[in-house]
Amino acid sequence: MNRPYNFSAGPAAMPEEVLAEAAAEMLDWHGSGMGVMEMSHRGKEFGQIAQEAEVDLRELLAVPAHFKLLFMQGGGLAENAIVPLNLSRGEAVDFVVSGSWSQKSAQEAARYCTVREAANTQASGFTTLVDPASWQLSNKPAYVHICSNETINGVEYQSLPDLKALGCEAPLVVDFSSHVASRPVDWSRVGLAFGGAQKNLGPAGLTLVVVREDLLDRALPICPSAFCYKTVAENNSMFNTPPTYAIYIAGLVFKWLKRQGGIAAMEARNIAKAELLYQAIDRSSLYTNRVDPSCRSRMNVPFYLRDESLNEAFLAGAKERGLLQLKGHKSVGGMRASIYNALPLEGVQALVAYLRDFEAQHG
Ligand code: PMP
């Protein structure tokens, strides 16, 4: 089956193999007589599914033993409240505002603690990143929050900041929703990382939290039990009913990632995909990407047509060619191609060919 290429920012394209496997197992998982949706989360069948998912993900992301891996609900936006409830102790926290998502995170955290901005690149239209050496960190913040890949603005940290080297002992909190599993993570620099699953890991409804064990004792008394990391960790992510079907599908994605050669292999493919697309944009006189080349995202590529009156024709022509969901986020307009792990190089090649043909017709 020749499916169109799907450039959605999330929920996003899934590996086709995973969809086919899930379809084949829909009515009867491994001879159990049950579909996964119908299983008790406390039964041995789902226990095996959840356990394998955790082991595979820990291996893929090379998560050290002193971090807990939690499968939660609520998505990235809920984490904007759940993180300060668990880590802030109601004290001051530092935020690096590098785009729409870190800005939202800072606004939400301010309901629970004092928020200070260590840097803010809004004046650049969120097209740059500030060198961490120039961040205005406070004296002993409870934690420092960054969004390591800004999905809307297309800005990505090429490495995580080393807070210790900056003289800051606070844990680094990373929203890695939109590039988790696309590149390795340097866990020695991380206190906590969280991400919604619906871009690179699986279906919406599952939220991944990876948290250093020594940070589990800080929750405020008002923190809801189902969102208290310590409670969730002590119950192996089964304090409440976890998003069982989403965990199952994510587990299939993890096995698919392993078959692809793991995260290093995915990173190499993602670099090749991103280079191809940025080159095509930079060489054209119709399209433009406004992000500083030093921090362009490998996952989310926003671009604009210099003649915006062509936007509708561009999108309609793309759809005809089987290139779906290229419209940019409503807050910034233009176009955006999200090229997550599941979007193959052939998809980017097809997009690049379309960019060229459309420009030849309209440029
Ligand atoms: N953070 C980032 C980086 C995101 O891309 C998104 C969703 N696009 C969110 C947070 C919010 O996630 P959710 O919609 O799952 O709450």
Notable characteristics:
single chain; Aspartate Aminotransferase, domain 1; 7-stranded mixed beta sheet; 16% strand; globular; binds 4'-deoxy-4'-aminopyridoxal-5'-phosphate; serine biosynthesis; transferase
Q: Can you give a write-up of this model?
A:
- With 363 residues, the chain is α/β, with parallel strands linked by helices.
- The protein has two domains: 17-259, Type I PLP-dependent aspartate aminotransferase-like (Major domain) (Aspartate Aminotransferase, domain 2), CATH 3.40.640.10; 262-362, Aspartate Aminotransferase, domain 1 (Alpha-Beta Complex), CATH 3.90.1150.10.
- The chain has helices at 16-24, 44-61, 75-87, 100-109, 229-234, 244-259, 262-283, 311-320, 345-362, and strands at 5-6, 67-72, 92-97, 114-120, 144-147, 149-150, 155-156, 172-175, 192-196, 207-212, 287-288, 300-305, 323-324, 335-338.
- It is globular and about 60 Å long.
- The chain starts with a strand and ends with a helix.
- It binds 4'-deoxy-4'-aminopyridoxal-5'-phosphate.
- 4'-deoxy-4'-aminopyridoxal-5'-phosphate (PMP) binds at residues 10, 75-77, 101, 147, 151, 175, 177-178, 196.
What string gives the helices and strands in order? Answer: EHHEHEHEEEEEEEHHHEEHEEH
Give a count of the beta strands, DSSP E runs of length 2 or more.
Answer: 14
Output the CATH topology of the largest domain.
Answer: Aspartate Aminotransferase, domain 2
Fraction in helix: 25-40%
Strand content: 15-25%
